[in-house]
Structures are given as C-alpha cells and as structure tokens.
Amino acid sequence: MENSYIIPEKVQIGHVHFKVSNLNRSLAFYCDLLGFEVMQLYGKQAAFISAGGYHHHIGLNTWHSKGAENVKLEEVGLYHAAILYPTRKDLATILKRLIEKKVPVSGASDHGVSEAIYLNDPDGNGLELYWDKPKDHWPITEDGMMEMFTRPLDIENLLGELSI
Q: Which of 17, 63, 92, 97 has the fewest CB atoms within 10 Å around its CB?
C-alpha cells in the first residue's frame, strides 16, 4: 500500500468518548476509582472528565445508550482505550488501588515497549492502563525493527515500585 502522506510526528490522539448506559455509575468508576476529575456536566446526559485540568480526556454520554446492555466482546467496535501513566510507580499505584477495591482485571502484560493492566469499565468498554518504558530500553531486532510482544507482567515486581 503506497502512502504519499505521512502524519506529523507530534500528532497525538486527543480524547475518547464512550457511550454509557448509566452516567452516575460511569462517573463513580472513572472519577472515584481511577481518579479523573469532572470538568463539565452536560445536564444528566453527559460528562467531560480529565487528568490535571485538561478540558477532557474522556467524554461519557447516554445520548444513544441510556439503559443499554454492555458492549459485547465479539462485536465490531472499540477494542480498548489506553490511558498512559507517566511513570511505572504511577501504574503500580493504580494497580494496588484496583486490587484493594477488588476490581476485576482481565490481563496484565509486558509488551517490551510498555507494561499494561487490562480491565473493563461498568459497560464492558475495554481499558488499558499502561506506562511506556524508556525508548532506549525498547527491544530491537537484528534488522533494526522494534519488537513488541505479549508476555506475562511481573505483578510483584511492579508493586515493588511502591516500596522504593
């Protein structure tokens, strides 16, 4: 496939906007559990939440989904949204919180370039909570290609960050 256009290097993915069935339940998950802040409520139908006062990283709305059933894994749609934590210790902190609150985690992986925790929000939307390893630690093949993989994450080692 030929591509004559290359997206600018500094482009970032801005925000994700989820259709949810129950706004209050979703706010409890994203704000009370994960620690996001409400930036704006849009009536009783939507909310815009963020980390650190940004206008919004996540939008939540019930415009077309109030009372709907959970997202089905086997259907077309978003696989997961990823939330990038700035440090390994920050990822360890949220993992400890998930464990303490008995929130089900669906996976934990070392991808070579990052370490990730996987879970679902109350509507079944997939989330990846992760941190990127320093670029100079990324695995590179003999021919110079980045090599991502999926291996079990050493949970005890990650939680050990909290005692440092």
A: 63
